[in-house]
Specification:
Elements: E1 7-13, H1 20-28, E2 35-42, H2 48-52, E3 60-65, H3 70-80, E4 85-88, H4 99-107, E5 113-123, E6 130-134, H5 143-148, E7 160-162, H6 179-188, E8 193-205, H7 211-229, H8 237-257, H9 261-269
Parallel strand pairs: 1-2, 1-4, 2-3, 5-8
Antiparallel strand pairs: 4-7, 5-6, 5-7
Helix pairs in contact: 7-8, 8-9
């Protein structure tokens, strides 16, 4: 692979005016200069469009659609991207300066590597305080770890992916949670290795979504992933069962922590 490989950064944006300037600037500041930033305005009603259009860098490319959700917006980016590699950036997050370069360097070490991740800092809304951090703890074929929900190789949309012409890249639309997990499972079942850099690849801005809305959406996401997995012949019954048990356990503990014990018990005994 060339040291000057083109990287596509796909950024959905919905009412992102308070933060999107910082997100775009973090992409422009990358030490790896050969990239395209594909921004898909998902029907914003604030001045997100105006802020995006302040940037005259030809690598920043603007698309607009009616509000259809983050997965639909990402799919627009996936359809038009031209990169040899691609990754995602939410409009309220930030890429450290070496985010692209550090991941590309891992790809150069082994042509069998298909996915590269890295460390993540989770900060408050002002990016002034580190709340916690996450780092991968696994290298190799990622499918089983994803289905085990081990957390060793999955935090969110932090993977950089090597593009292959025979691979379909598509997010299931309509999900508010776990759409990225399902996306990675669909890619991982086709083979390839997962690896990571020890450098920070993303600064994640923690939001303030309602706890109960978040939990109900999370359960719906886990259920949808399970239904999809059951239709994948590449995944054994054993792995499907392990996924189901772990997802139910996560939801029970989450509901219990939110003092919603009945909902937790209902999740445990229900058929997914």
């Amino acid at each position: 692979m060339s040291e000057n490989s083109l990287v596509s950064i796909i950024m959905p944006a919905y009412n992102a005016a308070p933060y999107i300037e910082e997100a775009i600037q973090s992409a422009i500041n990358q030490s790896h200069r050969n990239f395209e930033l594909l921004i898909i305005n998902d029907g914003s009603t604030d001045n997100t469009k105006d802020i995006i259009q302040l940037f005259k860098d030809p690598r920043v490319k603007y698309f607009s659609q009616q509000n259809k959700g983050v997965s639909y917006a990402r799919n627009v980016g996936l359809k038009v991207m031209k990169g040899d590699f691609f990754c995602f950036l939410d409009a309220d997050d930030v890429l450290p300066q070496r985010s692209l370069e550090s991941r590309l360097s891992v790809f150069r070490s082994d042509e069998n590597i298909k996915f590269v991740d890295g460390k993540v800092l989770i900060k408050n809304k002002y990016l002034t305080k580190i709340i916690k951090s996450w780092e991968p703890k696994f290298q190799g074929p990622p499918l089983e770890e994803l289905l085990m929900l081990s957390g060793k190789n999955f935090l969110g949309n932090t993977w950089m992916i090597r593009w292959h012409k025979d691979q379909l890249y598509w997010f299931k639309e309509g999900l508010s949670h776990s759409e990225d997990l399902l996306f990675y499972i669909n890619l991982a079942k086709r083979g390839g290795l997962y690896a990571y850099t020890n450098e920070i690849v993303l600064i994640y801005r923690q939001g303030h979504q309602s706890a109960m809305t978040d939990l109900k959406g999370l359960e719906k996401g886990y259920r949808s992933v399970y239904q999809e997995v059951c239709n994948m012949p590449e995944i054994s019954k054993t792995l499907r069962t392990k996924y189901l048990k772990k997802a139910k356990s996560i939801m029970f503990k989450s509901y219990f922590s939110a003092f919603q014990v009945k909902l937790g018990l209902k999740t445990l005994i229900s058929k997914w």
